[in-house]
Amino acid sequence: MTASETVDDRPTARLLIVGPQGSGKGTQGARIAGGLGIPVVSTGDIFRANIKEGTELGQQVTAILDAGDLVPDELTSAIVRDRLTQVDAAAGFLLDGYPRNAAQVEHLDEFLHSRGEPLDAVIVLDVPREESIARLALRATEQGRADDTPEAIAHRLDIYEKETAPILSVYAPRGIVDTIDGVGSLDEITARIFRALDARGLRVAV
Ligand code: ADP
């Protein structure tokens, strides 16, 4: 079998990674996407890149990100739709940070339904709030992200608990949710995720 056939034969993988701030979504998401040969679509990264480049979008969302508030749903969903229509997402994608509330779930469902492309799995990283806060405090000193102030962190975690965690009750009845214990070494957590994906017929190349 040639390399191109391998790529063509690979099953599509349309995935979400969900977890509180500091749950390790970024690190694990990159490993999953790399192993499956799909792009990570991180709304936070898209917004931060636009802020850095000083685009109109960036100027529009700077204050929102700094406060730890959510960017308006319509705007965020339009950006995601646009990104998912790009050619590199044809064989799948891993969405990180989206959808984050019920309205975004509906937007994503409508979009994927219209394309006949259902989600394959929702990976949930389960991490207690105290652990999240400790990891974020460490990240604040290492990376200096503008929204890693104690106030913005607490606000983002509150939004996660009130608006994001409940979206799982929409996906659970579809039988696509894999809840992974997000406490342990990075490699242990990756292995847990890969086992869950494997059970769904999504073999991750390591
Ligand atoms: P974290 O998970 O630590 O909050 P992210 O990089 O996922 O970090 O998001 C950073 C910020 O970007 C959020 O606080 C919010 O302002 C904005 N953002 C990211 N994703 C979304 C989304 N799906 N809807 C609205 N705003 C978002």
In short:
The chain is 56% helix and 12% strand. The chain is α/β, with parallel strands linked by helices and 206 residues long.
Structural descriptors:
alpha/beta; five-stranded parallel β-sheet; disordered N terminus; binds adenosine-5'-diphosphate
How does the SSE layout of this entry go?
Blueprint: H1 3-9, E1 13-18, H2 25-36, E2 40-42, H3 43-53, H4 56-67, H5 73-84, E3 92-96, H6 102-114, E4 121-126, H7 129-143, H8 150-164, H9 168-171, E5 177-181, H10 186-199
Parallel strand pairs: 1-3, 1-4, 2-3, 4-5
Helix pairs in contact: 2-10, 3-4, 5-6, 7-8
Bound molecules: adenosine-5'-diphosphate (ADP).
Detailed description of the structure:
The chain has a 5-stranded parallel sheet with strand order 2-3-1-4-5, sandwiched between helices. The chain has a domain at 13-41 and 92-198: P-loop containing nucleotide triphosphate hydrolases (Rossmann fold), CATH 3.40.50. It is built from 10 helices and 5 strands. Helices cover 56% and strands 12% of the residues. It has helices at residues 3-9, 25-36, 43-53, 56-67, 73-84, 102-114, 129-143, 150-164, 168-171, 186-199; strands at residues 13-18, 40-42, 92-96, 121-126, 177-181. It has 206 residues and is of the alpha/beta class. The structure holds adenosine-5'-diphosphate.
